[in-house]
Amino acid sequence: MSDKLTTLKSMTEVVADTGDIEAIARFKPQDATTNPSLLLKAAALPAYAGLLDTAREQAQRAGGDSATQQAACCDHFAVAVGLEILALVPGRVSTEVDARLSFDTAATIEKAKRLIGLYEEAGVDRQRILIKIASTWEGIQAARQLEQDGINCNLTLLFGFEQAQACADAGAFLISPFVGRILDWYNANTDLDIRSGEDDPGVQSVRRIYQYYKQHEYETVVMGASFRNTGEIEALAGCDRLTISPALLEELANDNAALPRVLSPETAQSDIPRSALTEGQFRLGFNDDAMATEKLAEGIRNFIADQLKLEQLLAGNVKAA
């Protein structure tokens, strides 16, 4: 009998949620995704020392003040890591826009085009890149324009249904609804008894989005993300894509039990009418969801904090932990 990871790959595209080259080479995912937190961890690995030095040199050659060089250095390092990953995966890599731009549509578009430009200068077709953007209203509108310009986007930090509706209406290539962080919020703020993936509010959120997308024939890809345990992953078997950490990939690879398919386009049903939200409807509905509101704000703050640490590391002001 096949292990669960092999079985999962037969029904879902598996994406590695890591910048660790060794882990990607071992588990052979279709795609890989990174973010500032993962890039910060990658920067501490000996294998990336040369990339760090090259990124610093490229930023220095570009010139500008200290802040400009730090931002350029981060861009070069993110793309350098992406290039290493693309040599190992047959599909795409996701590279994230600076979270400090989450509420600035024009600046997000500019940064996305900058990142795509660096990949294209390195000889990589833009069809192998997904630009990750936080699922704020401003970020979603940036994605709308970028998709029209032929730049595919991965809308991340997605916790609420209104975010998913707006992303689909904007024509986003892919969304990353978070599972584990939703579970974290319910564990910290409610007395909800969660004993299995079926009870998990993060799993239920992704299922609701998946059913809505398939029922109304949206082309936007649903990629569940941020898992705390393999039970959550198994409860979403059959989802378009799942991005999974190396530790959980390892658990799945070592488990030879059966893994039944849970989600499929053919059986998807949603009683929610298809609708395009106005900005006011989006903000009002999202504001009414305390979990989604708090987790989005927290996620942006944390990514900004790690972005700043990465900038300091790349500038040579601090050493990798």
Topology, please?
Blueprint: H1 4-9, E1 13-17, H2 21-27, E2 31-33, H3 36-43, H4 49-62, H5 66-86, E3 93-96, H6 105-121, E4 129-134, H7 137-148, E5 153-158, H8 161-169, E6 174-177, H9 180-189, H10 201-215, E7 221-224, H11 230-234, E8 241-244, H12 246-253, H13 279-287, H14 290-314
Helix pairs in contact: 3-14, 4-5, 5-6, 5-14, 6-7, 8-10, 8-13
Report on the structure:
This protein has a single domain (4-31, 105-302), classed as TIM Barrel. It is built from 14 helices and eight strands. It is globular. By secondary structure, the protein is an alpha/beta fold. An eight-stranded parallel β-barrel has the order 1-2-3-4-5-6-7-8, surrounded by eight helices. Strand 3 (93-96), helix 6 and strand 4 form a beta-alpha-beta unit. It has helices at 4-9, 21-27, 36-43, 49-62, 66-86, 105-121, 137-148, 161-169, 180-189, 201-215, 230-234, 246-253, 279-287, 290-314; strands spanning 13-17, 31-33, 93-96, 129-134, 153-158, 174-177, 221-224, 241-244. The protein starts with a helix and ends in a 7-residue tail after the last helix. Helix 4 packs across helix 5 (66-86) and helix 8 runs antiparallel to helix 13.
Features:
single chain, about 325 residues, alpha/beta, TIM Barrel, 14 helices, disordered C terminus
Task: Offer a concise description of the structure.
The protein is of the alpha/beta class. It has helices spanning 4-9, 21-27, 36-43, 49-62, 66-86, 105-121, 137-148, 161-169, 180-189, 201-215, 230-234, 246-253, 279-287, 290-314, and strands at 13-17, 31-33, 93-96, 129-134, 153-158, 174-177, 221-224, 241-244.
